Amino acid sequence: MTTPNNPPVVVDIHTHMYPPFYIHLLQSRTTIPSSVPLLSSPPSPDHLPGRPLTKSYTSLPAKISFMNTHNITTSVLSLANPWLDFLPPSTAGQTSLQINADFQSMCSSSQANNRLYFFACLPLSAPLPTILDTITYLTTLPHCRGVIMGTSGLGSGLDDTNLLPVLKQLAEDNLPIFLHPHYGLPNEVFGERATKGEYGHVLPLALGFPMETTIAVTRMFLAGVFDAVPELKMILAHSGGTLPFLAGRIESCLRHDGYLFKKDREEGKGRRGIWEVLKSQIYLDAVVYSEVGLKAAIEASGEGGVERLMFGTDHPFFPPLEEGEEQWGSVTVNKEAVDKALGEGSKEAELVMGGNAVRVLRLYEE
């Protein structure tokens, strides 16, 4: 492949699809996670809940049409939650192979026209040798550029020591992790009115998702995961949740914690600061929906922080609600934030909109 020349490359690193085998898997289930046809009327009381499978989730032509509408050069596809976390150990490995093969097939098809790559899914409920074998397999897929992972890891969070062999293998094979939240915060955190549906999905999506990411990555930091796997690269969804804003507070609390201070001194541990980790191992997507948030994410990433952010759309979530509307506000608002923060057409804006993704994810390499 060769890098497109003009206009400047626009790369969407945060865009989801359900490939054929995953659709079949969800449709065959009778419990959540499952899928349902798109409904034209309210469901009956005995209707099985599940995610409606619209063309935006399942159709490759629909994805390409969306890209064309919004002048997106290249997309890096990934499975939407709940990934494969729900699968029994006996089937997770084979299911992962099939779904990743489906992604590779879509990306290499004539319809894709050399415009697609993907983040693979791992069978994290499977035995460790199966997970490691899967990572090795991913290195043989020409369009795979990393893996997508939720915050539960093998089931106990990303600070679980049992996950370290997986993280080390990913780092060794130069496969970044695109970290995406799923579970959010417990529903009771948001109060009785929210649990009754009065506030829609605003609280779990706007606050629960970002806080989930923040907590997961902070647990990794406190556990010394980034020091144990210094070559690991992570791309955090939604601009890292609240990490850009809270990193200083996390650092201060760590410095003033008597237990950790004593423990680190006794062990002779030279713990790196969270700012250093943010500047060396963590990248952020630019799905933050505001100039203020984008500037904070850039500042948190240190000198040259503009080189650590990558544009995303979160398609097919947050679709237009007005009938006949073609432009997705979730796309245009994020692009406007880049333009306002960095200057429309500037070199810095071009890096965030596509140049950084090309470099970090090795796009267009043969």
Automatic annotation (TrEMBL):
Q: Which molecular function term from Gene Ontology is one that the record holds?
A: hydrolase activity
Where's the Amidohydrolase-related domain?
A: 110-363
UniProt key word Lyase: yes
| Entry keyword Lyase | yes
Q: Which GO terms describe its biological process?
A: secondary metabolic process
InterPro entries in the cross-refs: ACMSD, Amidohydro-rel, Metal_Hydrolase
Q: Which organism is it from?
A: Apiosordaria backusii
Similarity field: Belongs to the metallo-dependent hydrolases superfamily.
Q: What is this protein called?
A: Amidohydrolase
Keyword terms: Decarboxylase, Lyase
Q: Which residues cross the membrane?
A: none
Q: Which Pfam families match?
A: Amidohydro_2
Highest taxon of the lineage? Eukaryota
Q: Which GO terms describe its cellular component?
A: cytosol
